[in-house]
Design goal:
Elements (H helix, E strand, L loop, with lengths): L26 H16 L4 E3 L9 E4 L13 E21 L2 E19 L5 E7 H14 L10 H15 L19
Antiparallel strand pairs: 1-2, 2-3, 3-4, 4-5
Bound molecules: zinc ion.
Length: about 190
């Protein structure tokens, strides 16, 4: 049975670190991926990066098929993903399992060329767009220690300050398990 893993939250150091490149895949990674899919689905997420389950490795999963409009879009398991090209720019609303209850509009490329390795360490190059491209960019940001709230202007951030502080203090209730932590980025 796959395990539900607790999600790291805004304010934790691991979400600000650059993830380590994965050199080989063993059964532990395969098991981690299974647990990540299970965790993501139970938290009603459509993307999850390893740092969000407290692992500092360049691994992320994306599955937008739970949304009816995208039901034919196949899930992605990305090892060491890199964006190799971008096209157009579009504003979409984003949220993050590590930053519960906050949603905001972020502008990003609409179409991306993506290079990653699959679980057989085979190199894959694809072009994707729309919601899948959006989530992939959000997850790759996680692997670089970046969060979607970093894109927001000062005014918008101000609006969210109270909620962000509650998350940092671990005082937010969610219907999926979170890592309990003391706020590290005090202000
Ligand atoms: Zn996120």
């Amino acid at each position: 049975m796959p395990k539900q893993l607790p999600i790291t939250t805004y304010g934790m150091d691991i979400l600000r670190q650059k993830s380590k490149i994965l050199k080989d895949i063993d059964y532990k990674i395969v098991e981690l991926v299974e647990n990540m899919f299970y965790t993501m689905k139970n938290a009603a997420g459509i993307g999850l990066a390893a740092p969000q389950v407290n692992r500092n490795i360049a691994l992320a999963i994306v599955d937008v098929s739970v949304i009816d409009e995208y039901k034919d879009v196949k899930p992605l398991v990305m090892i060491n993903p890199v964006i190799t090209g971008t096209h157009r720019e579009i504003i979409m609303e984003e949220g993050c399992l590590s930053i519960p209850e906050i949603r905001a509009e972020v502008s990003r490329p609409e179409v991306i060329s993506l290079k990653y390795y699959d679980l057989n360490m085979k190199e894959i190059n694809i072009e994707i767009d729309d919601l899948q491209a959006r989530v992939v960019q959000h997850e790759i940001d996680h692997l670089n220690g970046k969060l979607f709230v970093d894109f927001l202007d000062k005014e918008t951030l101000k609006e969210f300050k109270k909620s962000l502080n509650l998350i940092k203090k671990g005082k937010l209730e969610t219907d999926y398990p979170l890592f309990i932590h003391e706020g590290e980025e005090q202000d």
